[in-house]
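Here is one chain, start to finish.
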Amino acid sequence: MAPMTLSPVALAPSTLAPVALALDTATPFLTLALSWPGGELERAEEVGRASAERLADEVRALFGEAGLPFQARTIVIGTGPGSYTGVRVGASYALGLARVWGAEVRGVSTLESLVRGEGRQAVSLDARKGNVYSAVYEVSGGTVTATVQPVARRALADFEAETGDLPHWRDPAPSGLSLLRAGLSHGETQWALAYL
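Its structure:
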């Protein structure tokens, strides 16, 4: 009797469980999130400039912790603003995974990962020399539902004067789940990276 030969079978994206991965390397934090039917998991760790060295292992560890095979149907990428190298590390990795997995990649501003709680709120990232990259969002259910003031570079003092008594999240650790939810809700399939 001849030995049986098994060939790997690639699953078409439409047959995969709706697993979604979010990743962002635009800030000093390596920000990740994963969602699947019945669960979600996130991780944000300050790694400075070590995103490139840590990204692949941390993504695999996240899938391992969730007990899922290493494959997603959708990948959400934080598009910045961020450092030139940092933003490109995450985007390159996401595009590589998407090609291998046959996954869709959606882009969302990194600033959407800074929101907390509910309601109208201001968010910003340091842009040096007294400036910030900032935006004002409406948030419901932990997801940005409307952009009140689009992402722009502004003087910090001017932005704080414009936003008055709104809650202002200034350089917080990003939330991978906020990024993931935004990407699944309204992420762009035709996206561009934004640099500091």
